[in-house]
Amino acid sequence: MGLLTKLSMKLKSYKEDYFDFEAATDKGDVKIVCKDEKYGLLDAQKRKLITQLDYNEIYEIDTDVYVAEKGGKKGVIDGKGEVILPMMYDTISMASNNLFSVGTYDSVKREFSYTLVDFNNKTVTDLTFDFPVSFHFNYAIVTKNGKWGTIYEAKMAEGIKIRPAAPIIYTDIRGKIFDGLLAVKLDKKYGYIDLEGDTIIPFKFDMASEFENGYASVSQLGKMGKIDTEGKKVVPCRYDYVEPFDENGLAAVAIDGRFGYVNKKGKEVVPCSTKARVGGCDEEFNLSILSLENAYKDQKNTINSKTGKSKLEKEYNKEIKLMYQARETYLAYIKKVEQKQAEIEKFRSDYVEAIVSKNKGKTTEAEVKSEEETTAETVVEPVEEAKTETTEIVILEFNPAEELVNPDEEDVQEVPADELKTND
Questions:
Q1: Tell me, what's the pLDDT at 399?
Q2: What is the rounded distance in angstroms from the CA atom of residue 83 to the CA atom of residue 75?
Q3: Residues linked to residue 212 through DSSP beta bridges, in sequence order
Q4: Model pLDDT, residue 397
Q5: How far apart (Å, rounded) are the C-alpha atoms in residues 222 and 237?
Q6: Are 286 and 328 in contact (CB under 8 A)?
Q7: Predicted TM-score (pTM) above 0.85
Q8: Which residue in 307, 306, 304, 274 sits closest to 291, CA to CA?
Q9: Residue 312 in contact with residue 303, Cβ under 8 Å?
Q10: How many CB atoms within 10 Å of residue 190?
Q11: For 32-54, how does the pLDDT look when each residue is reduced to its tens digit (9 = 90+)?
């Protein structure tokens, strides 16, 4: 029998003994294996079981950290099969690099209760929570008895300590830890707090969303608008519906069922005149047209009189005209944004080219760095002084960061107001 045949037979035996391919997962040298619906860990290099196949389930929650279930309870083992947490919990997840979020089920109350333990199964807080805890940048959003707040994970000399941050008093919370600001509800009003619970934007909104790219949607007296991270209204609360700003700095808005678009200065660059959004790619616009056409056909089938059908046809033609006019305005604005982007790219290219050109012949890193700093100072000097310098850098007369998302609207061809009226 040849060596290759022996190796093949040995590998086949190894697979048949320990692998149920649909249930097993490969994690480097350690594999989760299953036989007869029982799980264990296998050293793939030594082809030797690390643990016995006596677990009901095993899955990895972190590198070399596995949740294992036996007898209806869960614990944690490592890649060597050593027990980190005993089989005593109903749910387990990673809360941070140092902590587990563990939960137990109360069959009387029919609810879970969660707390935090370290790798020695030591409870690190007296608090319990309604949901699993997950830390980001040492902070976690938590809830207790339907109220929300935040906690902080502090690494002390004596071990991990958990301290309260934002008090657990809010009836709603929206946002992510890395945003730094959370929309919270207190006494029927929304405001914004930082991760420690300090009020940053007062509680004066009927509704508030989380921040996205520096902007959030808010509502007052039944109307929606947008604010920045300082609480300044960049879009007034006058709309029935507001979407997040897109990559072009536009947000779809609606009033009385009519859609338009506003920029980050709050200006309606596309007036609220159409029954559907006109933004996006050509395919999305064509689908909006098709949807409008189908709605018209369905409505037409319900009308018997010739006069009624004629009136409906006029309304349909008017709506289609409004859609194409609004689309043209939208595309004109996008074109201007793209032109500004091209100008910014040219500015950056010219700047880099100037740096490279001036650094030709420089022999030391210190000389290059000194020249870069000098050139950078030239760029930020007032234009009058910059003109006196003999440099290849082109100083543009616009603020790239501002102009990219807020192009000068004067050049955008907007549809005349009288053509945008929807009433006969």
A1: 41
A2: 8
A3: 215
A4: 39
A5: 8
A6: no
A7: no
A8: 274
A9: yes
A10: 26
A11: 999 999 999 999 888 899 999 99
**For residue 156, which phi and psi values (nearest 5 degrees)?**
-105, 170
CA distances, 407 to each of 334, 337, 394, 411 (Å): 9, 6, 20, 9
Token representation of residue 46: 């030594």
What is the distance between the alpha carbons of residues 383 and 394, in angstroms, rounded to a whole number?
11
Q: 242 is written with which tokens?
A: 């507001």
- Look at the alpha carbons of 18, 23, 28, 31 in this order and tell me if their dihedral is positive or negative: negative
pLDDT 10s digits, 271-292:
999 999 998 889 999 999 999 8
Residue given tokens 């098709």 in the structure block: 290
- The two beta strands, 181-186 and 189-194, are antiparallel
Q: Give the pLDDT score at 158.
A: 83
State whether residue 160 is helix, strand or coil: strand
Query: Do 69 and 56 contact (CB within 8 A), yes or no?
Result: yes
Handedness of CA 348, 349, 351, 352 (dihedral sign): positive
319: left (phi over 0), alpha (psi -120 to 50) or beta: alpha
